[in-house]
Amino acid sequence: MHQLNPVTKQIQISGIRRFTDLVAKYPDALSLTIGQPHWPTPQHVKEAAMVAIEKGYTTYTPNRGLPALREAAHAYYGTKFDLDYHPEKEILVTAGATHALDISLRALLEPEDEVLIPAPAYPGYEPIVRLAGAQPVYIDTRPDGFKVTPETLQRHITERTKVLVLPSPANPTGVAYTREELQALAAVLEPTEAYVITDEIYSELHFADAHVSLATLPGMRERTIVIHGLSKSHSMTGWRIGFVLAPVEIVEEMVKVLQYSISCASSISQYAALEALLHGQRDAEPMREQYRQNRDVVVRALTEMGLEVAVPDGAFYAFPSISSIGQSSQEFAQALLHEALVAVVPGDAFSTLGEGYIRLSYACEDEKLQTALGRMGQYVARQTSRG
Ligand SMILES: Cc1ncc(COP(=O)(O)O)c(C=O)c1O
C-alpha cells in the first residue's frame, strides 16, 4: 500500500483534546478547560430550528448559504462592527469558524508561503497552514503582553509572507487590540502584499464597549478576511455556523473550496442562525457581563496566588504564567488534576511558546469557579512552600 499523507501524519491531535480525554478519567474534577459558553443556546433560536425541521427545510441550500441569512449577517455585522460586505457577493456561511478559517487559508495559500501566527496561539491555525503545504511562522508575543506590535510584525514579514492571522480577542490569552494598536499594525501592512485573516469569533464577548475590526481601517478592507460565527456569541458551538466576510475576488475563490468541502452549511442550523441574527442581537450581553465579572474574580485570585497574568480583554480565558512553580505546564496541569481535582489546559497545547503557562476557562458558574480557584490556590501554595 502507498503511504498515507505524510503531512497529516505529522499533525498532532490537539493538546486540548488530549488533556480533556485525561480529565474524563477524573469524574469528580472541576474542569476549567471548556472552550464554549456554559449558557444554553437561546430558546428562540432552538425553536426556530424546530420550526425549520417541521416545515421540511431540510434540503441543500445555496453553497454560499441562505440568501436571507447572508442579508441578516450583512445587517448584523454592519450594525455591530461597522463592517460593510455585499450579502450576495462578499459573505459566505460556513460550518463554524473552523471551516471559515480552513477555506480562507486554502483559497489563499500556495506551497512555501509563510503565514504569521501570533503565539501562544489557538491550535486550529497551524495544521490548516501545513495541510496547504505552507509554513507557519510564529511571532513570539510573550514580551509584549501577548500582542503583535508594529516592530515584531515588521521583523517577521518577508517576501514570502502571504497571510497574518490576527485573532482579537484571542484564545488562549483573552487579549484584544485597540483601534490605535490596529492602526499601527495597518501602517506596517500597508506597503506589503500580505493578507490578514482576522479571527473575530469572540468579538461579542469583548469587554471593552467598542470592538474594532482591522477591516474597517483605511486601506485594510481589500486585504482582510473577517471570520465571524455564532459559536461563542450565541452559545451555538454544536450548530456549526460561521461566516466569512471578504472582498468579492477572494470570496469567488473561497466559494469553490466551500462547495467541494461541504456543499453548504446545515440547513436547519442556518434557519436557527437566521433567528439569532434577526432577533438575538442582545443575546450575548448577559454572558459578556458574567464573564467580565468572572474575569475580575480570576485575575484577583491568580494575583493573590502570586501568578502573573495578562488581564484578558475578552473571551473567557486567562493564561497565567506558572514559571515560578518550577514545573512544566504538563506537570503542573497533571498534578493539579490528580491532587486538587481541578482541570486546566497545559500551555504547551498553544504551541511551544505556551510552555510555562496554563489556560483556564472561566466560562462556568460563579460557585464552581470560586471552588476551583480555592483548590488551585492551595495547590500553588503547597508547591511554593516546597520550593
Ligand atoms: C480563536 C478561535 N477561533 C476559532 C474557533 C473555532 O470556532 P468554531 O467552533 O465556530 O469552529 C475557536 C474555538 O474555540 C477559537 O477559540
UniProtKB/TrEMBL annotation:
<dbReference type="GO" id="GO:0008483">
    <property type="term" value="F:transaminase activity"/>
</dbReference>
<comment type="similarity">
    <text>Belongs to the class-I pyridoxal-phosphate-dependent aminotransferase family.</text>
</comment>
<protein>
    <recommendedName>
        <fullName>Aminotransferase</fullName>
        <ecNumber>2.6.1.-</ecNumber>
    </recommendedName>
</protein>
<feature type="domain" description="Aminotransferase class I/classII large">
    <location>
        <begin position="28"/>
        <end position="375"/>
    </location>
</feature>
<dbReference type="Pfam" id="PF00155">
    <property type="entry name" value="Aminotran_1_2"/>
</dbReference>
<keyword id="KW-0663">Pyridoxal phosphate</keyword>
<dbReference type="InterPro" id="IPR050596">
    <property type="entry name" value="AspAT/PAT-like"/>
</dbReference>
<dbReference type="InterPro" id="IPR015424">
    <property type="entry name" value="PyrdxlP-dep_Trfase"/>
</dbReference>
<dbReference type="InterPro" id="IPR004838">
    <property type="entry name" value="NHTrfase_class1_PyrdxlP-BS"/>
</dbReference>
<keyword id="KW-0032">Aminotransferase</keyword>
<dbReference type="InterPro" id="IPR015422">
    <property type="entry name" value="PyrdxlP-dep_Trfase_small"/>
</dbReference>
<keyword id="KW-0808">Transferase</keyword>
<dbReference type="InterPro" id="IPR015421">
    <property type="entry name" value="PyrdxlP-dep_Trfase_major"/>
</dbReference>
<dbReference type="InterPro" id="IPR004839">
    <property type="entry name" value="Aminotransferase_I/II_large"/>
</dbReference>
